Amino acid sequence: MRVTVLLPGVLRDKAGGESQLHVDVPEPATLGSLLDVLAKDYPALERRLRDESSGLRRYVNFYVDGEECRYSGGPATTLRPDTEVQIIPSVAGG
Questions:
Q1: 19: CATH
Q2: How far apart are CA 6 and CA 71, in angstroms?
Q3: Cross-strand partners of 84
Q4: In total, how many domains does the chain have?
Q5: pLDDT in tens, 39-76
């Protein structure tokens, strides 16, 4: 199943400069299985998205079809065909 991943500027260099990735995810497709595929295809991106225990990084937000998924399933969030996943790192500063 194909999923579209939208990457912000700060992560594009970890994915060959791409702003959009079209990723084939095995079914049943979840956010976690999508991240597994990204880890294999873009190892430098993996360290920015998941922590050492493969959990979602605390300061990275994942939106599945516009819905923030950290508290509604996290890595177990189900993906449908043509799902759009947007990854947005938190920005700190003042």
A1: 3.10.20.30
A2: 20
A3: 4
A4: 1
A5: 999 999 999 999 998 899 989 999 999 999 988 899 99
